[in-house]
Amino acid sequence: MKLVNNIHVPLFLYNTKYIRPLLKKELRVILVSLFISFLITGAKFAAYFLTHSVAILSDALESIINVVAGGFASYSIYLASQPKDENHPYGHGKVEFFSIGFEGAMIFIAGILILFKAVQYFIYPRELFRMESGLWVLGITTLGNLFLGLYLVRSGKRLSSLTISGNGQHIMTDVYSSLVLMAALITIHFTGWTLIDPIVSLVMGVLILNNGYKLMRRSISGLMDETDMKVVDKVITILSANRRENWIDIHNMRIQQYGNNYHIDCHITMPYYLELNDAHDEMKRVEVLVNEGFTNSDVEFFIHMDPCIPSCCHYCLKSACPVRSNAFTGEITWTRDNVLPNRKHG
Do 335 and 249 belong to one domain? Predict the structure, then answer.
């Protein structure tokens, strides 16, 4: 169940009515990115044919990746929008990690090609032509990429989309490298030092390789369910701010991410004498609170309830406990150190 405007909505209806329109917004954003990236890539190749600059060619090769990655991202967002089924009980959101991994691999390959072309130009230098025209074209494409990158980064945060955020960060990296490239070409134009051209290309190739590695690293950690400590801290903050006396402790918390949705397992220690309905209501409160704290995301909880034992008494907040066997000595603050391990705090 999902709480929407104080009404409990079945999860499958929520996914259809609320999550799918959100994913349609993601798809529209990424299609805009794909179209603009296609135009910018064409303009950069035009600048290369005007100038014969290997540094501009490096920038154009990276822009090809924007187009290819945008196409793959469009498909991944479409696939992520499909509802859960028997074969995919957690949904299709993991495909977003494949998307950023694919983009990272393509960027890495582009970096290798750029390094190769730079070394080739050191061995067989070429004369540069029409530098002013190339600079004008590069300036316009850099400005276009700047607006596109900012749009994607903001949209990724607003929609909690890994794919859009990753695409936006890549394009912003492209903007920074283009600015460095423009500074280098202006220097060449006024000094005639053409050796700067392949040197800048080498530097750009190394930076692009590093960017590709980071995206692939992020993809692998997501596919292998590496714990995102920022998400853990957010869940702990929400539960600590709304702590109830029946929640004696929370431990063995594990968080998996599927696109912009989360699956959380945890154990909650509660008074052993609670009736089943009361215990269920307490667990439901946990799920509702965390879902309210994760806007634009759906958080699915699997909670295992542990009965309290005498060693829990010294930190149990229940003031009117009829079976307390040890005096209360103080509240234990929930942190990563006691929420993540599979053991009661006592």
Answer: yes
CA angle 223, 229, 233 (to 5 degrees): 135
Is residue 31 domain-shared with residue 167, that is, in the same domain?
yes
Residues 243 and 217 in one domain: no
CB atoms within 10 A of CB 324: 17
7 and 133 share a domain? yes
Closest of 334, 308, 339 to residue 321, by C-alpha: 308
CB of 179 within 8 A of CB of 142?
A: yes
Give the bridge partners for 304, in sequence order.
267
- In a domain, residue 345? The reply is no
Residues 15 and 60 in one domain: yes
Q: Which of 188, 223, 258 is the last residue of a domain?
A: 223
Alpha-carbon span 156 to 222, nearest angstrom:
17
Question: Residue 125: phi, psi to the nearest 5?
Answer: -65, 150
Whole-prediction pTM value? 0.62
What is the pLDDT of the chain when averaged over all its residues? 80
Spatial distance between the Cα atoms of 84 and 89, rounded to a whole number of angstroms:
5
Can you give the pLDDT at residue 180? Answer: 78
* pLDDT over 70 (residue 142): yes
Q: pLDDT digit string (tens) for 157-182?
A: 787 776 777 778 778 877 877 887 78
The answer to whether residues 37 and 64 touch, using CB atoms and an 8 Å cutoff, is no
Select from 223, 258, 287 the last residue of a domain: 223
**266 in the same domain as 172:** no
Task: Name 257's bridge partners.
Answer: 262
pLDDT band per the 50, 70, 90 thresholds, residue 5:
very low
Q: Which helix (H) or strand (E) holds 317?
A: none
Domain with 98, as residue range(s), is: 2-223
Residues 53 and 143 in one domain: yes
Whether 16 and 37 share a structural domain = yes
Q: How far is CA 317 from CA 93, 247, 314, 322, 340, in A?
A: 39, 8, 9, 13, 21
pLDDT for position 289: 92
Write down how long the chain is.
346
HSE on the CB side for 208, CA within 13 Å?
A: 33
Name the packing angle between helices 54-80 and 196-223 (round to 10°).
20
